[in-house]
Structure formats: C-alpha cells, structure tokens
Amino acid sequence: MTGLLIKNALILPMNKETTWFQGDIYVEGNSIKEVGKELSPDTPNITILDGQDTVVLPGFVNCHTHAAMTLLRSYGDDMPLMVWLSQRIWPREAHLTEEDIYWGTMLSILEMIKSGTTCFADMYFYMDQVAQAVEETGIRASLSRGMIGLGDKAELALRESEEFVQKWHGKAQGRITCLLGPHAPYTCPPDYLKEVMALADKLGVGLHIHLAETRTEVEDIQKQYGMTPVKLMDSLGLFTGRHVLAAHCVHLTPEERAILIKHQVGIAHNPESNMKLASGVAPIPELVKEGARVGLGTDGAASNNNLDLLEEMRTCALLHKVTTQDPTVLPAYQVLEMATRNGAQVLGLEKVGLIAPGQKADLIMVDLHKPHLTPLHDPVANLVYAAQSSDVKNVIIDGKLVMKDRHMVTMDEERVIYEARKRGQDLVTRQ
Ligand SMILES: CSC[C@H]1O[C@@H](n2cnc3c(O)ncnc32)[C@H](O)[C@@H]1O
Ligand SMILES: [Zn+2]
Known about the structure:
Catalyzes the deamination of 5-methylthioadenosine and S-adenosyl-L-homocysteine into 5-methylthioinosine and S-inosyl-L-homocysteine, respectively. Is also able to deaminate adenosine. The radius of gyration is 21 Å and the shape is globular.
C-alpha cells in the first residue's frame, strides 16, 4: 500500500462544520485515511509533502467541457452560439481525427491539472481516445460520447455510446464513469431522446445534455413543440428516475427551476462561456437558494477560452453580484463549494469533493507565499478572488501525485504542447 503524508498545511475540508485549520493529511492507497495534527503513520516508503505556506483543498471539478476543443481555442470568437457552432466549429469538427482528439484532450488535461482541476465531465467524439488520455494521465472524469439525433449518424451514435459505456464505465481503477450524451433538445428530437433514455436505463447510467442555453433555443423549441426545453424534457420523463447533468440552464422560469430541483438535476453553470457567447446570465443565486445542485464548468476552450476553474469561480462570484447589484450574493465559500464538493455531487461522485477519512484523495496544494495572496485574512476569499492557476503547487488524484512543484509526473508537457500545436494548426486548414 502506498502512503502519502501532507504535513503542517492549512486545510480547507469543505465539510461545513469546519472552516480551516493547520494540520496533516494521511493518504493510503487512493483514499484519505486520517486528517489531524502531528500524524505519524508507520507506513514504509511514505512520501512526505511539506505543507508549510500552502493551503490544501479538494481538487476542482469541471462539470462541463469538451476537452479536445482546446485545438479550436481562439479559432472562432465574438459570435453568438448558433453562428459560432454552424459557421466555425462544426465544419472544423467534421475533420477531427482520433489522434487530434487524443492530443487535444491531453492538452486540456495538462491545462486542467496545472490549474487545480482533478475531475472533469466531457462530452465529445472519439471518446476511446479521451478515455485513454484519462487513463494515462491519472485524472478523474465523467465521459459521454456526444450524440446528435438528426441525420445519418444518429443510430451510429447510439451504438457507439453503448459500446463506449460497456468498455469504460468504472475503468481506470474506477476513475472513469460514463454518461450518455444527447447533445441538446435542438439536435435530439423527442423520439431520439426516448431511445437514449431507454439505452441509459439498460446500461444503468445517467445523461449529460446542454439545456436552455440561449433565448434562441427556447424560442425555437417553443415554436416546434409548443413547450420550452425544460418542459419538453420533463414531458418526456427525461429527468425521472435517472441522474441528469444539464449544462447551462440559463433561461429558466421559476416553474422550470422547481422542476429541475424536484428531480435533483445536476446543473453545470458555465459563466464565462455564457458571457462570451452572450447567451445570458443563469439564475444561479435563485437556484442555489431554492436548493438546486449546482457545479461549475468551463465549457470548451473554444468558447471560454481557457479551462481554469480558479478564474471561473471569480467570474461566477463577480457576475452574479453585478447583475443582482447585491455584493452579498454568492459569497466566496459558496462559490468554492460549487467548484469542489457540489460539483462532485452534480457528477454523482459521492466520495469526491471533501477532505475527510474515506474520501478519495483528490487534493490540491496552493502556494500561499505569493504577493497577491498576502496577507491571509481569509484563505477562501484569497482563493476565489485573488489566486491564479500558477499558484497551484502540487496535485494529487486518486492518491497519486500527478503534479509536484509544478512539474508534471504523468505527462510529458513539452510533447503535449508540441503535438497539440501541430494538430491545431493542421485542423484549421484541412479540406
Ligand atoms: C456532440 S459532441 C458536443 C458538441 O457540442 C458542441 N458545443 C460546444 N460548446 C457548446 C455549447 O456551448 N452549446 C452547445 N454545443 C456546444 C461541440 O462543438 C460539439 O459539437
Ligand atoms: Zn458545452
């Protein structure tokens, strides 16, 4: 059994009862074994990490992204969603190869680990390559093969999704979980969604879908089906009896919020993507107050344009304060909960997101010896409002040290940047 001991760090357990305290964390195998003061386990070959001048917290959970879209970063900007997708993104995605997906995902994992993310929810294509990247790098992920229910690839998407779930659900020592990924109400008609739901139930997995992202989506679905997207999904029974991860949920009525809350739908809030595509502002303060399950996501790097959850937390807190003109809305601790324990809950991961015995050891150590983090009146406020990704010093996922003193342990950083740069350049000129 491998052992890892973090000594004398500031610990942020995220468990509501405790704020923060100075102490030690002992990790055995892939789980946290003990949290306390002056721990001295007698495990041979123990790795000791000096926690002096660092804060340890659960790793960030990115609840919605399209990892390999890193290859299309800054390829289409300053447009609304449907123009961006149909004129810039989808034509390029048609040229993606398995190798592109592998290296684009490796690049995204590199960026995520370096900014403190230990788990992500992905919806994209060629998911075997995504799963391979997850397995090799040691990160945790909830993976969905994106399904478009229109056109001649709709049935293929169902078959490939089934094969993907059978092959990868619970693999990589349990770090990979799978969901089915019907893309959105405007690309997956009701009859197709019924097939997806039946398949999800047969496989015993949940769903990951884009929902109520733009005003255009709401108007189009209303015109086509006489109902809003949330009501349409509810009328199909999509939320009933299965785990659903719904990305965006920007345009919701109070009644629709109640539907999502009643069914414990996990909501992935993507403030930066919503701001950049000018999709709107999701009613997060209302949802949180009413008891919704809300986590944070970046969306893909082509609409954000990075995968940095520290930045996303700050944006989230500031956005909702300014739109409500109320600085008490979404205080720092609540936003940090969204990025950690609530994000894990949104993905259905019960043993992730807290620092407590029995929890998976997904931990990050943030260097506090920085001018912009000094003084330390409130570590949580410093993390949400002042920290930068380069302050993340060490990253532990499933008990393994994957980044030490900012050096990647499981990845060849230079090779990933080289391969991804080459493929990104090639992708945008392919005919
Ligand atoms: C079918 S795989 C996923 C699919 O989703 C596209 N996508 C990326 N960002 C968004 C977004 O904000 N809303 C809707 N769809 C999005 C991505 O390009 C893939 O085609
Ligand atoms: Zn998305």
